Amino acid sequence: MPADSNREVGRRIATIRHARRMTQADLARTAYLSLAMIKGVERGARTPSDDSLESIAAALGVDPGHLITGDTIAFGRIRAALPAISASIAGYDISTGSPRRALADLHTAVDEAVSWRLGAQYSRLAQHAPPLLDEALRSLHHTTGLDRQQAARLLVCIARAADAVAYKYGYHDLSARLIELMRWAARQTEDPLVGAAVAYVRTETFFAARAHASGLRALEQAIDASPSPTGPEACAVVGALHMRAAVIAGRAEDATAADLHLTEARRLGDEVPEGQYQGTAFGPESVRVHEVSVAVSLGGDHVGRALDVAHEWTPPDGLPAERRSGFWIELARAQLWAGLAEDSFHSLQVARLVSPQHTRGHPWARESAATLRRLRRTNAEDLTGFAEWIGAV
Question: In 3-state terms, what secondary structure has residue 280?
Answer without folding.
Answer: strand
